[in-house]
Design goal:
Blueprint: E1 14-16, E2 19-20, H1 21-40, H2 43-62, E3 64-65, E4 68-69, H3 70-82, H4 96-118, H5 124-135, E5 138-139, E6 143-144
Helix pairs in contact: 1-2
């Protein structure tokens, strides 16, 4: 016997026209709050309060961030700003792989030290000569720079 598997289970049912029940509640609540603004407040104040209220209501009803409803984003932001922040650093014991990595790093450091030993040493006279050539704007390897 074959059973039909439901598809699109994450899509909410449309109850009132093209709106789901949550969307309708957000829009109706926003509209009701705006009506209260216009009845009890002066027109300018009511309009100034209604604009962000309508924007928030529309975002709650229709806007999704990374596929999640806007109410989840508001909840996460609220929890982040009101929650305590306690950071604790815990030292981890070195594992066998980190010991081998440390040995490899030590060998690489020795090789770099040997390479640095082969490099010519910079004497005080050479350093002052380089500083003077930089002060007079000449290329230390090619002589005075041409002014164009």
């Amino acid at each position: 016997m074959e059973y039909q598997v439901p598809q699109f289970i994450e899509v909410e049912d449309k109850i009132i026209g093209p709106l789901s029940l949550k969307q309708f509640i957000y829009i109706a609540g926003t509209g009701g709050l705006c009506v209260v603004y216009f009845f009890y407040l002066p027109l300018i104040v009511a309009v100034l309060l209604a604009i962000p209220t309508i924007a928030l209501g529309a975002a709650l009803a229709f806007y999704k961030v990374n596929g999640k409803p806007f109410i989840h984003v508001l909840e996460a932001g609220f929890n982040y700003y009101t929650g305590a922040r306690f950071f604790l650093w815990k030292h981890k014991d070195p594992s066998p792989t980190s010991v081998t990595n440390a040995a490899t790093a030590a060998r690489e450091a020795e090789a770099a030290a040997k390479e640095a030993a082969r490099a010519p040493k910079l004497t005080r006279g050479k350093l002052s000569e380089l500083a003077w050539s930089l002060d007079v704007r000449e290329n230390p390897t090619k002589g005075p720079a041409s002014r164009t």
